[in-house]
Design goal:
Blueprint lengths: L1 E6 L9 H18 L3 E4 L13 H11 L4 E8 L5 H14 L4 E6 L6 H7 L10 H13 L22 E6 L2 H10 L2 E5 L7 H11 L10 E9 L3 H19 L9 H6 L4 H10 L3 E4 L1 H15 L3 E5 L5 H16 L1
Helix pairs in contact: 1-2, 1-12, 2-3, 3-5, 6-7, 11-12
């Protein structure tokens, strides 16, 4: 089972955005050495806890800092942009790092409505055109736009013999069914929605029509906090609880430290909310995390697993990935 990383470049209290980005670069180098297969960056806008609104720029740096691991986006928020321009950007990345680039595509706004309008140049991104954008993007990358299309014959550069893998990302059935229809790879965000994703993955595989990819291929992305012991993992998971309560209140705050999370008290209603959100989290000692992840992979018929980990320090985040790599190596 391949393991990969989704990194949102978290900003922990007491650290700057620049430090968070430096930690992303350091983590990418480390997990490559540990044998992780892919390293994806997420696009978010105007969120105090997350440092990366421009994953395509940071990817260029990651490519230079690594040698073998596939690097990509999880994902580019396509409704904001022209399909042609996104294809150009990822053709450039593919030319720089051939055979290593993944283009993960999302349709969510990645921020609040006011920010979304600003990112869209005064226009709120319209996801109604998303299927057409994805179709055009794939054909731009491959130089296969049909005769009669307005952009047929437009030269997309840099040209090359390889092209990025395209993944549609989703936390509902929408992107899964679209990926099946267009013959693309599909990644499901269990860390966003822990309910019903197994049915979405099965429907994708059942309805898959050969297209850009000849066969279906799935990836399941899970939030994981792995620690030397179950008790320590439970302590570190308090940071996740704190963060999710803050998000529920629409409070725009950085990721808390473990000390802040342990010191926080909650109302009965908040504790009930935390309990409902724990289904989105895998946590425990290495053996327990491995067992839970393999069970989820089996339940979801996932071909690969991707891990997102955010804790109260960059050191414990790194340790979580190290412990998982060791567990899956045995």
């Amino acid at each position: 089972m391949k393991l990969s990383v989704l990194d949102q470049s978290p900003i922990i209290v007491g650290h700057s955005a620049a430090q968070a980005l430096a930690e992303t670069i350091a983590l990418a180098r480390r997990v490559e050495a540990l044998g992780y297969a892919r390293y994806w960056l997420a696009e978010h806008h105007a969120i105090a806890a997350l440092a990366d609104p421009c994953p395509e720029i940071l990817l260029a740096r990651l490519g230079a800092e690594t040698k073998t691991i596939r690097i990509g986006t999880g994902g580019v928020l396509l409704p904001y942009y022209s399909a042609f321009k996104v294809a150009e950007v990822f053709r450039m990345l593919e030319a720089l790092y051939p055979g290593r680039i993944d283009l993960g595509i999302g349709r969510a706004p990645g921020g609040d409505a006011k920010t979304a309008r600003a990112v869209g140049g005064g226009r709120f991104p319209d996801a109604d055109n998303f299927p057409q954008q994805v179709w055009e993007l794939a054909h731009h990358l491959d130089g296969t736009l049909p005769h009669g299309h307005a952009d047929h014959g437009v030269r997309l550069q840099p040209e090359g013999s390889t092209a990025p893998e395209i993944w549609l990302l989703g936390s509902s059935d929408y992107s899964g069914l679209l990926a099946a229809q267009l013959g693309l790879r599909f990644a499901f965000a269990h860390f966003i929605n822990a309910q019903g994703g197994d049915a979405v993955m099965r429907a994708y595989k059942q309805r898959f029509q050969a297209g850009r990819d000849a066969q279906s291929h799935t990836l399941l992305c899970c939030f994981v906090v792995c620690a030397p012991t179950d008790d320590e993992a439970e302590r570190r998971a308090k940071v996740v609880d704190f963060r999710r309560v803050e998000m529920a209140y629409n409070r725009d705050t950085p990721v808390p430290t473990l000390e802040q999370a342990l010191a926080r008290s909650y109302t009965e209603r908040e504790l009930e909310y935390i309990s409902t959100q724990r289904a989105r989290l895998v946590h425990g000692n290495p053996a327990r995390c491995k067992d839970q992840l393999l069970a989820l992979a089996d339940q979801y018929s996932a071909d690969e697993l991707m891990i997102i980990t955010i804790t109260g320090s960059y050191e414990t985040r790194l340790e979580s990935y190290e412990l998982l790599a060791e567990a899956f190596a045995t």
